[in-house]
Design a protein that fits this description.
globular, Metallo-beta-lactamase, Chain A, eight-stranded mixed β-sheet, seven-stranded mixed β-sheet, 360 residues, alpha/beta, 27% helix, 19 strands, single chain, 11 helices
Length: 360
């Protein structure tokens, strides 16, 4: 009789753990497969820390002036080792603090696309990786990896023929914890997103990090139809690009997707139990337009003191493949030109163009 009772109690205990999304491979209090996704507030850049069962992964490392923000945040989370450092593509607003991260923390595997950049910040990163006796793992679509109790699968890049648009070379991945899933697409734009949709990998996810800070070229109707997210996160800061775009916000509203923004809430932490997801932030009011919301956010959250976009004499343009910064209208600018400031261009290793001679 006692054996039957013990068997019954054990069966009930296991059943409760399964229904609650927990694992049963340990008797400790940490047996529940809780995973946290930290969307770190780095302004107009990306850096996401993921922790599962005391294992950590960092997706992107903010901009060149986010070193203290990223490193200090990882320290406050008691990170000693990163199992994975994934740098989606070699733009400065995704690899800016990566060299300091590599120098500060033990890194197990670095995954980066094969597409290179000519900036000093990228070249410094390569030197830092080499000096730490680390190797770069090239992304292979369909490859899966384990992070604690979670797993993630690479979805992109699907081609090496995207040309000079570095955004389309972004690594994309789907992260799964129990019955919960998260999608990260870097800065992929329409062409790369089309390839992701065609490669037949699983895309359906509970949470979507909107690509390219909410740009209209990344969060497309076709992508939302395939992903069917319940939640969206936009990593964005005070900017002169119109991020997030009105069209993106309208799509999110139309699809009734609960949306969170770092420019409104600061760092956002999503906690997954394997069966449900909760957020530390208040959802954004999608009834506001992007311009109205951005204006409101800039008065309530931190701003980048180096980003004086209102001073037109401080505005310059860079390209994905060049090493110079230019004035508007310079003949060396092509379709990939990106608006930035002199301070950020210099920190990223760009030099003034000798043709248009911008302020230095």
């Amino acid at each position: 009789m006692k054996k039957q009772k013990r068997f019954y109690l054990a069966f009930v205990t296991i059943l409760i753990f399964i229904l609650s999304g927990c694992t049963t491979n340990t008797d400790t209090a940490d047996s529940c497969a809780t995973m946290k996704v930290h969307y770190i507030d780095t302004g107009e850049s990306d850096s996401i820390l993921i922790e599962s069962d005391h294992h950590y992964m960092l997706i992107d490392a903010g901009d060149v002036d986010d070193v203290d923000t990223v490193v200090n945040y990882l320290n406050t989370q008691k990170v000693k080792k990163l199992d994975y450092l994934i740098l989606t593509h070699p733009h400065a607003d995704h690899i800016g603090a990566a060299s300091e991260v590599v120098n500060t923390f033990t890194v197990g595997k670095i995954i980066m696309p094969s597409k290179a950049n000519t900036t000093k910040v990228f070249e410094t990163l390569l030197d830092t990786i080499a000096s730490n006796n680390l190797k770069i793992t090239k992304p292979v679509v369909g490859n899966s990896y384990t992070l604690g109790n979670a797993t993630f699968t690479l979805l992109a890049p699907n081609s090496t023929t995207y040309g000079s648009n570095l955004n389309n070379h972004s690594i994309s991945l789907r992260l799964v914890n129990g019955n919960n899933s998260f999608l990260f697409i870097g800065d992929c734009e329409a062409e790369a997103i089309s390839d992701i949709l065609e490669n037949k990998q699983a895309l359906d996810s509970d949470v979507l990090l909107c690509g390219h800070h909410g740009s209209k070229t990344s969060t497309t109707a076709e992508l939302l139809d395939a992903v069917t997210p319940t939640y969206a996160v936009i990593s964005v800061g005070n900017n002169s690009y119109g991020h997030p775009s009105d069209s993106t916000l309208s799509l999110l509203k139309k699809n009734k997707i609960t949306t969170y923004r770092t420019d409104e809430s600061g760092t956002i932490i999503a906690t997954s139990t394997g069966s449900k997801i909760t957020f530390t932030a208040k959802a954004s009011d999608l009834s506001e337009t992007a311009s109205t919301s951005a204006t409101k956010a800039s008065t309530t959250t931190k701003t980048d003191t180096n980003d004086d976009s209102s001073n037109e004499s401080n505005v310059v343009y860079i390209t994905d493949t060049g090493s110079k910064y230019h004035k508007h209208g310079c003949r060396h600018l092509d379709s990939s030109n990106t608006k930035t400031t002199i301070e950020k261009a210099k920190k990223a290793g760009y030099e003034p163009c000798k043709t248009c001679k911008p302020a230095s």
